[in-house]
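Researcher: Let's walk through a ligand-bound prediction step by step. First, I give you the protein sequence. Second, the SMILES string for calcium ion. Third, you return the three-dimensional complex as structure tokens. Ready?
Model: Ready.
Researcher: Here are steps one and two:
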Amino acid sequence: MGNATSSALSKEILEDLKLTTKFTEQEISQWYENFQKQCPSGRISPEEFEEIYGRFFPDSDPKSYARHVFRSFDTNDDGTLDFKEYIIALHMTSTGRTTRKLEWAFSLFDVDKNGYITKAEVKEICQALFKLIPKEDHSKLPEDENTPEKRANKLWGYFEKKDNGRTCSGSASAQREIISMEAPAIFL
Ligand SMILES: [Ca+2]
Ligand SMILES: [Ca+2]
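Model: Step three, the predicted complex:
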């Protein structure tokens, strides 16, 4: 048992995932099987993740956004996504409850993972989000958010903070603003 093969999903992880995601044991096992097939090493690298993202955005440059999403899913900070991180990510972007989505959005914007969001971080994410939009569609954007800077300013304005201020993870209303502003792009 101590030498359990990597193909078996541990009971502990299974129970944990059932509890946090409300997926059934059958669903989780099925996904685990697929995950093992696509990813025999049991870990998704940033490059593999970028490639997956690239398939969804063939007409734009999703690399930097994919990198940020990867970071926000890599909760143990080891530079790879394991099955647990992958399934929680899947859960959050599909059927997750709002509180979890808020937590995730916060971690997406908190680029340096220090527990605060700064204006520079909001700007960085807005720049990455912009690269997801095909160039020919930029002209269709509303006047007050047709550049990453304008969009970041607008978003930051909702925090009612000074330019040098920062928002902390306890600030639920700020998090909700992030979601309502960015949700359509974030949850693609
Ligand atoms: Ca990880
Ligand atoms: Ca930060």
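Researcher: And what stands out?
Model: Residues 74, 76, 78, 80-82, 85 surround calcium ion (ligand 1) (CB under 6 Å). The chain has nine helices and two strands.
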